[in-house]
Amino acid sequence: MKSFEALYAEYYNKVYCFLFRLCDDGDLAEDLTQETFLQAYTSFHRFRGECELFTWLASIGKHVYFKYLKKNKLDLDSANLELVVNTYCEGCIDPEEHMRRKDVEEAVREIIDGIPKKYRDVILLRIYAELSFSQIALVLKISENSAKVIYFRAKKMLMEVLTHEFEM
């Protein structure tokens, strides 16, 4: 029990930040974090140490988040896509740029909807959980090289569509 309390104290903020970046809602992130640690506690005996603890917790958190989306009949449109939009529209200030930003955000949501689950999972774990490719490989039970290829293909698809739609 004490070791799990130490794990909770050490990883709570990191898990919360990961989930907050996914949902962009502090209260929801808090609830999802609590559910993540509850599930981790009940299945701690199954943790084999094949990956880092945060990698394991992020995997649980991702599943908790997807379960929440499914239960509430939401999809990844409700996921926080601000990171992608911010990267594409750095420095957007005036009203015209604000509208452009909204257009990019809508396009990103449509693209994410069209990406197969394996691409979506890798993108979420790489961008939001900031996991290395080796950690992603362990979570998704794929090779590290596959994780890299999937990530770069998804990123390329996203950027090609954005460039085609928004470059003059």
From TrEMBL:
Span of domain RNA polymerase sigma-70 region: 7-73
Keywords: DNA-binding, Sigma factor, Transcription, Transcription regulation
GO molecular function, one term: DNA binding
RNA polymerase sigma factor 70 region 4 type domain location: 106-158
One biological process term in Gene Ontology: DNA-templated transcription initiation
InterPro entries: RNA_pol_sigma-70-like (IPR039425), RNA_pol_sigma-70_dom (IPR014284), RNA_pol_sigma70_ECF_CS (IPR000838), RNA_pol_sigma70_r2 (IPR007627), RNA_pol_sigma70_r4_t2 (IPR013249), RNA_pol_sigma_r2 (IPR013325), RNA_pol_sigma_r3/r4-like (IPR013324), WH-like_DNA-bd_sf (IPR036388)
Family: Belongs to the sigma-70 factor family. ECF subfamily.
This protein's name: RNA polymerase sigma factor
Organism: Anaerotignum neopropionicum
